[in-house]
Fold this sequence. Notes:
Elements: E1 4-7, E2 10-13, E3 18-24, E4 34-39, E5 46-51, E6 57-59, E7 67-72, E8 77-82, E9 91-97, E10 100-101, E11 105-110
Parallel strand pairs: 2-11
Antiparallel strand pairs: 1-3, 3-8, 4-5, 4-9, 5-6, 7-8, 9-10, 9-11
Amino acid sequence: xxxxxxxxxxxxxxxxxxxxxxxxxxxxxxxxxxxxxxxxxxxxxxxxxxxxxxxxxxxxxxxxxxxxxxxxxxxxxxxxxxxxxxxxxxxxxxxxxxxxxxxxxxxxxxx
Length: 111
C-alpha cells in the first residue's frame, strides 16, 4: 500500500520560509508527476505546484516566484521550498501522486 507522509509545516511570521517534504513508501514517485496542493479553512483544495517526471514545473500564480518544487527520486521524496510567506499561504498542504494523498501538514503564517 502506498503511503505519502508530509512534514515540515509549522508557524512562521510573514516573510519567513519553510521547506515541506513528502516521503513516499516504495517507488510510486518514479515515472509519475507529483503535485503539492493546499486547502485553507472554508476553501476548496487548490493546486500549488506540480513537477513532471522530466523535472518540468508549474505553479499557481499566487506562489510563482516564491515557491519551488523539487524531487529526489532516489529518496522517493518531493519538496516544496516556500519563501516570502504571506498570511494567505496559511493552509494544510498535501502532496499527491496519481490517486494517493498524504495526511497533510499545517502551515500557518502570522502577520
